[in-house]
Amino acid sequence: MSAPFRATVRQVYRLNDTQLVVLRDGYEGDVGPGDEIELQLQEGTAKAKVVDLAWGSAFQATEPPLTLIVKGLPEGAEPAEEAWVKTSS
């Protein structure tokens, strides 16, 4: 059994019908397509399903964080400062 996934969010933004959850370096555990995640918001939490993963970022080509491509976050979901994201239990 793989370790539960947990990471700190750098930024979340919407791209058409998906959301991109860009992570900071230093995540723990495993995550992949089909996994359900929980994201800490400014008020409460929200769940979404991972549809794909991407390495790299438009921020800096020399700093390739992991990006989760997800569906199901509510419109306007705003992560808390230093928000966490984790696989749902």
Can you give me a brief rundown of this structure?
0% of the residues lie in helices and 47% in strands. The protein is mainly beta and 89 residues long.
Overview of the molecule:
The chain is 0% helix and 47% strand. By secondary structure, it is mainly beta. The protein has a 6-stranded antiparallel barrel with strand order 1-2-5-4-3-6.
Q: What are the SSEs and their pairings?
A:
Elements: E1 6-15, E2 18-23, E3 36-40, E4 45-55, E5 66-71, E6 84-87
Antiparallel strand pairs: 1-2, 1-6, 2-5, 3-4, 3-6, 4-5
List keywords for this structure.
single chain, 89 residues, mainly beta, six-stranded antiparallel beta barrel, 6 strands, 0% helix, globular
| Arrangement of strands in the largest sheet | 1-2-5-4-3-6
How many E strands? 6
- What would the average pLDDT be, to the nearest integer? 86
Task: State the separation between the terminal residues, measured CA to CA.
Answer: 13 Å
β-strand amount: over 45%
| Proportion in helices | under 10%
Query: What overall form do the CA principal axes indicate?
Result: globular
Please count the helical segments.
0
Order of helices and strands: EEEEEE
Largest sheet: 6 strands, antiparallel, barrel
Structural class estimated from helices and strands:
mainly beta
Low-confidence stretches: none
User: Measured on Cα atoms, how large is the radius of gyration?
Assistant: 12 Å
